[in-house]
């Protein structure tokens, strides 16, 4: 906590205000061009995402709000602001059904060609 003196001019004069650091936020405007991108998702990857969420909690300060903590996706939308545009020649998503990430018999592959993905403030738009 720090004290800041604010000059308001006449007729109010000076005012002392106690300030604390605001939550860390990132602002960006990024455009990427990729020839090929692929990722996997499914129930076998949820422990990894949970562990990343725990690590991410070490970066951001604990909330003073007594409410339940935010989920990782809501926390990302709270802290990251801007636009990410991805132009990808081949975009592949591998959806696992099994709890075993090495099981290649229970998965579905979805592939897009010439995908333009725009993510602005937590909202996706694809073409």
Strand order of the largest sheet: 3-4-5-6
Distance between the termini: 47 Å
**Radius of gyration based on Cα positions:** 22 Å
- The assigned structural class equals alpha+beta
Largest sheet: 4 strands, mixed
Average pLDDT, rounded to a whole number, is 83
What is the count of distinct domains?
Answer: 1
Low-confidence stretches: none
Q: What portion of residues belong to β-strands?
A: over 45%
Please write the string of helix (H) and strand (E) elements: EEEHHEEE
Query: Based on DSSP secondary structure assignment, what is the total number of beta strands?
Result: 6
**Cα shape:** elongated
Helix content: 10-25%
- Total DSSP helices: 2
Features:
127 residues; 4-stranded mixed β-sheet; Hobbit; Jg25678 protein
Which helices and strands occur, and which strands form pairs?
Layout: E1 2-7, E2 14-19, E3 26-41, H1 46-59, H2 72-79, E4 80-96, E5 107-120, E6 123-126
Parallel strand pairs: 3-4
Antiparallel strand pairs: 1-2, 4-5, 5-6
At a glance:
This protein has about 130 residues and is α+β, with helices and mostly antiparallel strands. It has helices at about 45-60, 70-80; strands at about 1-5, 15-20, 25-40, 80-95, 105-120, 125.
Task: Give a verbal description of the structure.
This protein has 2 helices and 6 strands. The protein has one domain. The mean pLDDT is 83. The protein has a 4-stranded mixed β-sheet. A two-stranded antiparallel sheet has the order 1-2. The chain is elongated, with a radius of gyration of 22 Å. The chain has helices spanning 46-59, 72-79, and strands at 2-7, 14-19, 26-41, 80-96, 107-120, 123-126. By secondary structure, the chain is an alpha+beta fold. A hairpin with a 6-residue loop joins β1 and β2. This is Jg25678 protein. It comes from Pararge aegeria aegeria. InterPro entries: FMP27/BLTP2/Hobbit_GFWDK_RBG (IPR019441), Hobbit (IPR045167). Pfam families: Hobbit. Residues 1-104 form the FMP27/BLTP2/Hobbit GFWDK motif-containing RBG unit domain.
């Amino acid at each position: 906590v720090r004290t800041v003196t604010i000059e308001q001019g006449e007729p109010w004069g000076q005012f002392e205000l106690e300030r604390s650091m605001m939550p860390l936020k990132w602002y960006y405007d990024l455009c990427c061009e990729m020839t090929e991108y692929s990722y996997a998702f499914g129930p076998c990857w949820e422990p990894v995402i949970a562990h990343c969420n725990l690590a991410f909690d070490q970066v951001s300060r604990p909330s003073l709000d007594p409410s339940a903590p935010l989920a990782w996706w809501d926390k990302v939308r709270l802290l990251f602001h801007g636009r990410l545009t991805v132009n990808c020649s081949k975009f592949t998503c591998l959806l696992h059904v099994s709890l075993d990430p090495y099981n290649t018999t229970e998965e579905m592959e979805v592939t897009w060609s010439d995908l333009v993905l725009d993510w602005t403030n937590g909202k996706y738009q694809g073409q």
